[in-house]
Amino acid sequence: MRATIIRNPTSGSSPMANQAVPAGQNEIEDRILNNLRHYNIEAEVRYTTADDPGAGLAREAAQAGIELVIAAGGDGTLHSVASGIIGSKSILGILPCGTMNNIAHSLHISEDIEDACQIIAEGKIGCIDVGSINGQIFLEVSGIGLEAALFPAAEDIKSSGFRETIRGVTNGIHTLFSFHPERVKITFDDGHTRSYRALQVSVCNSPFYGAHLQFAPQAVMDDGYLDVLIYQNFSKLEYILHAIAISQGQRVFEPKVKRRRIKKLYITARAPLSLHADGEQIGTTPAKIEIIPAALRVRIPQRVIDSTNISQHQPLTPARRAYT
Fold this sequence. Notes:
- By secondary structure, the protein is of the alpha+beta class.
- It folds into 2 domains: 2-122, Probable inorganic polyphosphate/atp-NAD kinase, domain 1 (Rossmann fold); 136-292, Tumour Suppressor Smad4.
- It has helices at residues 15-18, 27-38, 55-63, 75-85, 102-106, 113-122, 146-158, 162-178, 236-247, 302-306; strands spanning 2-7, 42-47, 68-73, 91-96, 124-133, 136-138, 141-145, 182-188, 193-204, 226-232, 258-262, 264-269, 274-277, 280-284, 287-300.
- Strands 5, 6, 7, 8, 9, 10, 11, 12, 13, 14 and 15 form an 11-stranded antiparallel beta sheet that branches. The protein has a 4-stranded parallel beta sheet with strand order 2-1-3-4, sandwiched between helices.
- β13 and β14 (280-284) form a beta hairpin.
- The longest helix has 17 residues, at 162-178.
- It is globular.
- It starts with a strand and ends in an 18-residue tail after the last helix.
């Protein structure tokens, strides 16, 4: 089987990434290639760049008829690679090399090299849903409000540069104190429009997102629905405490979160509000958000297919026809 590995050479802090050297062939890369050869998979390695974080490389591989396109990086790399193969016959393989690896965690894919390669080679093909916000895909979450406003600062904080980190902390504190909830109108797929004064509206495809937190435990990646979390009547302090509580396995503020399961919705606001898709700012409101069911074919563990419980719900189904 022919495969293309699309690797982010600077990604993450996972056990897999910690062994990586940012350039050329190296020990970790050799281990990956040798493990795949054990399963008769010959892989070419291509590297992401600032100009192409993975989507272009993935699209080229899919157009060349490569059956297996493997994302080796974090959730950002996975997002880019997925966007390049949606609608094609290529299958996505996942080598989690990022800091959070939320999608891999949601799909029960190990960060261990040997285990991840075995899943890529012998795992079953499942089809997962993908979200779309104003035509931009997301695998984890999209939304408006405080999170979207804070993401640029978060990116600076994650950078390796001292000045960028200080700038990120400063801008993040300023945004946190200056941000105020805005009134938004949401038209749900039942045709009803409701008004909320919300600190944050998150539309989730996966249970985990952000700093590896399970904000949406009911979200299932192959159920044909998106899970909407509306933080109405939340103070900023309560929102921060909510995130801290989740990180500790507690859900003290959970009853305050309004929840809906939808296939599509439309959001407007009095003033333009920042939008994000998987942590990338993509403009401002209005926003049309919808589910693209069974859009992405991905190798997942057999035990996930066999399991009766993934993210507290039913398992991913065996492969259905990919979205075209």
